[in-house]
Amino acid sequence: MVKQVRISDSTINYEVVHRNIKYPRLEFKTGKLLLVLPEDYKDHNDIIEKHKDWIYKRNSEITAAVEKAQKKRLNYKRTDEEFKQSVHSIVENISDDLKINAGSIYFKSMKSKWGSCSPKRNLTINKLLKYLPDNLIEYVIFHEMVHLIERKHNKRFWNFISNKFHDYKNQEKELLEYWFLIQKVVDEP
Ligand SMILES: [Zn+2]
């Protein structure tokens, strides 16, 4: 059931789910706020109160991204084959750059992320990236491959990213915008 909370000048919709986890967490993975709570967690208002600044900030970023997304266009010209080839060559280049080796590369349609990197060093790339501009495809792959060096999103991780992508905050913003555009493709039959 969708609930609502008023923070400053915004009314924010959210949903609550209970899972077999130890600590509560907040997610904005699909653009909507989701409170994921341990099974026996009853009153969630304290969590909202505690994180209301973060919720407000994230919600504003997402609202702006949804708006900006309307001005962006997806690239429908790239074929699946072309996309896979270019991913493989980008991975090779980055391997040379960072002097690392990835395992296998898998392609999958994913609803919550652009890519992932497994502990076995395999990369999973979201097929939907094929609709995005080259520089963002490269950025996502680079991000996942830096995880072969540093698992966490810590300072060391972002140092690697910013060495190659000086304006990575813009790339992150753009990715968020494309995320909302892509949802339309996902919803189409
Ligand atoms: Zn990451």
Provide the fold topology.
Blueprint: E1 3-7, E2 10-19, E3 25-27, E4 33-38, H1 45-50, H2 52-69, H3 80-98, E5 105-108, E6 115-117, E7 123-126, H4 134-146, H5 155-164, H6 168-187
Parallel strand pairs: 2-4, 5-7
Antiparallel strand pairs: 1-2, 3-4, 6-7
Helix pairs in contact: 2-6, 3-4
The chain binds zinc ion (ZN).
Concise structural overview:
The chain has 189 residues and is α/β, with parallel strands linked by helices. The chain is built from six helices and seven strands; from the N terminus they run ββββαααβββααα.
Explain this structure to me?
By secondary structure, this protein is α/β, with parallel strands linked by helices. The chain folds into 2 domains: 3-69, no CATH class; 80-187, 2-Layer Sandwich (Zincin-like), CATH 3.30.2010.10. Helix content is 46%, strand content 19%. It contains 6 helices and 7 strands, in the order E-E-E-E-H-H-H-E-E-E-H-H-H. The strands form 2 sheets. It has a 4-stranded mixed sheet. A 3-stranded mixed sheet has the order 5-7-6, covered by helices on one side. Helix 2 (52-69) crosses helix 6 and helix 3 (80-98) crosses helix 4. The protein is globular. The two termini are 26 Å apart. The mean pLDDT is 92. The chain binds zinc ion. Zinc ion binds next to loops. Zinc ion (ZN) binds at residues 143, 147, 153.
Features:
6 helices; 3-stranded mixed beta sheet; 4-stranded mixed beta sheet; globular
Low-pLDDT segments: none
> What fraction of the residues are assigned to beta strands by DSSP?
15-25%
Order of helices and strands: EEEEHHHEEEHHH
Looking at this structure, what is the CATH superfamily of the largest domain? Metalloproteases ("zincins"), catalytic domain
Please work out how many helical segments DSSP would assign: 6
| Adjacency order of strands in the biggest sheet | 1-2-4-3
User: How confident overall, as mean pLDDT?
Assistant: 92
- The number of distinct β-strands equals 7
CATH class of the largest domain: Alpha Beta
Please identify the structural class as seen in this structure: alpha/beta
Hetero groups: zinc ion
Q: First CA to last CA: what distance?
A: 26 Å
